[in-house]
Amino acid sequence: MKKIKNFALLIILSIIIGGICGLCGTAFSKAVEFVTNVRGEHSWLLYLLPLGGLLSVIIFKLCRSQNAGTTSVFDCVKTKQNLPPLLAVAIFCGTCLSHLFGASAGREGAALQIGGGVSNVFSRLFKLNEDTRHKLIMCGMAALFSAVFGTPLAAAFFAIEVILSSVCISAAIPVFLSSAAGYAVAMLLHVHPERFNIGALPQFSFSVVWKIAVITIAGVLVAFVLCAGLETGKTVAKKLFKNEYLRIAIGGAVIIGLTLLVGNYDYNGGGINIIEGVFEGNVSYEAFALKLLFTVICVACGYKGGEIIPTLFIGATLGGTLAVVLGLSIGTGAAVGMAVLFVCATKCPIATIFLCLEMFGFGCALVIIPVVIVSFCLARYKGLYKNVYDVIYLIKERKNKSLG
């Protein structure tokens, strides 16, 4: 009877957390949209990017959150580790500053931190036990991701898959309910879900299969460059510029120089508009490489927001470019590119499948599912987030070496 009562309480709390995070996610989405529009109307704001970076560092220090990040939220679910009480405030403000002044950053990574931070504060405020706190943090992650991106199934699976520990079994139902609640609140408050028109899928043939295979292999290679670049970039930036204020200011100055060199603002901010343009047939062959460069510099130097939207940008532009070269429909190529980059970067195949099904429509399943599975099997390198799949692979590698 006690277990039933505890589970019923968890269900109620998960829906409450979903509603709260839905409101926070709505505020966050509208704030990012607002500052992005402001930057679009006042392009000179780009020249203040170093100043925006400095403000971001100051805010994180004032909120005592300078050492916290997305991985901290994941660790908080698995251990007794706590999160800074003002992490949600810090990452909210830091991400808005990144988008206002033109850093190449996303918002879904920030959403995970806001959701985890809000849930952690809620759990501490009501003195909930550790097990309940862990589950509610997962609920908060899913709800914020769902509210911001408009993909409740993918958000729930992502929160479960990226953690993938014993706590996930009993947390599954609350996580799905919380994700649904966050999505419902966001839709009621007119947050637009991310949806892309993939167009008519090509008929199955050997020609189509090998073209998709080429895009898949190219995507895996580019994802490796992205993940390696982000990891190496952070290490190099910290060695070159030990002072974080100097590091982020110089990073901003470099982005200003690159933007002037490129001659447009396509690679500043998240770039959802560019992804939409690809599905409408607007393809620039060098876009994926430039976005990768901009993103590595911004993340390495400390600009906040996350890497997920830039990852999808890189996938869409790479897939669209190769589709034009290979004679495949651009929508199909872009969708395949996005799926490959996302699964290789996050190492969450189930979440990737549902993300694509929700963004492109369930009719793309026959194309997307094989692509995701093959890409996941090929991507043996370290992704953006360390999860159980990386641990399993490392164990197998060590076992093979010892046997050899």
What ranges have pLDDT less than 50 throughout 5 or more consecutive residues? Answer: 391-395
Straight-line distance between termini:
53 Å
Largest sheet: none
DSSP helix count?
17
Number of spatially distinct domains = 2
Sheet/helix structural class: mainly alpha
Report the CATH superfamily of the largest domain: Clc chloride channel
How many strands? 0
| Approximate strand percentage | under 5%
What is the typical, i.e. mean, pLDDT?
Answer: 89
> Can you write the helix and strand succession as a string?
HHHHHHHHHHHHHHHHH
CATH topology of the largest domain: Clc chloride channel
Shape: globular
- Report the C-alpha radius of gyration, rounded: 20 Å
Helix content: over 70%
Please write the CATH class name of the largest domain: Mainly Alpha
Q: How does CATH name the architecture of the largest domain?
A: Orthogonal Bundle
Task: Describe what you observe in this structure.
By secondary structure, this protein is mostly helical. The chain folds into two domains: 2-188, Clc chloride channel; 206-391, Clc chloride channel (Orthogonal Bundle), CATH 1.10.3080.10. The chain has 17 helices and no strands. The protein has helices at residues 2-41, 49-62, 70-78, 87-101, 108-125, 130-149, 152-163, 167-188, 206-240, 244-262, 272-279, 287-301, 308-326, 330-346, 349-360, 365-378, 388-403. The radius of gyration is 20 Å and the shape is globular. The termini are far apart. Mean pLDDT is 89; it is low at 391-395.
